[in-house]
Amino acid sequence: MARFRLIKLFCHIFILFVLAWIIGCAGSSPKDDRDFESQFKKAKILLEKKKYIRAQEEFHLLVLKASHTDIGDDALFYFGESYFLNKEYPLAISQYDRLIRKFEFSPYVEQARWRICESYVSESPDYYHDQENTNKALEKIQEFLDDYPSTEYRDKAQNTILGLRVKLGMKMYEVGVLYIKLRAFDSAIIAFDNMLDNYYDTPYAELAHVGIIRCHSEMLEVEKAQEYLELKKDILNVELQTEAERYIAKAHKRIEKAK
Hints:
Blueprint (H helix, E strand, L loop, with lengths): L1 H26 L5 H16 L3 H14 L6 H13 L4 H14 L6 H14 L9 H16 L6 H28 L3 H14 L5 H15 L3 H11 L5 H21 L1
Helix pairs in contact: 2-3, 3-4, 4-5, 5-6, 6-7, 7-8, 8-9, 8-10, 9-10, 10-11, 10-12, 11-12
């Protein structure tokens, strides 16, 4: 009798276990698309209200659960947006990259590519810091324009390229100025020449020309300084021409004084 009760108890426990497993599986089954749509709208409202952290949480859940649905690319793009608008640019880049790789035919791809460009631009530091992100931004923008030549972002992209080139030109020009302060004039000329080779279209090009004239003058290479000025006179404004002539005149005085 006792044995019969034990078997009966075991059967009840087994049935309860099976029911619990069935209920558990039912509870963890995917939501239908209407639930995902509702959650997506909620997340977008949070984004519009600038509640970026909460929006990130909602979009993250959608990315995990709804990537197989019609809103899969929407969720991933706006997940990136929630980071971008919160100025968390490396995390934003990561999500936009995921979108591009996972949903290569999504209508969000072009915008995601541009956001990646903007993210690297935002991560570009002042000229006196390392310019890895500046160079990366230039590379990404150029690739973007090559792939989307008629993009609505074309003008903005070209202006951004110019601004980044100005920053890099300034950095290289300041290297030349530093060498002048160290009285390493040959090295300064090399720095100015490198700057002109790479960033000839920036406002620092004229300053670099004057810097070269100054270096030759400081080394009392008056003829070289004068020849260089004659070659560049047409592209130097009056103020910079006057400055260059002043360096040459000062060199002449030093030579006369040394006689």
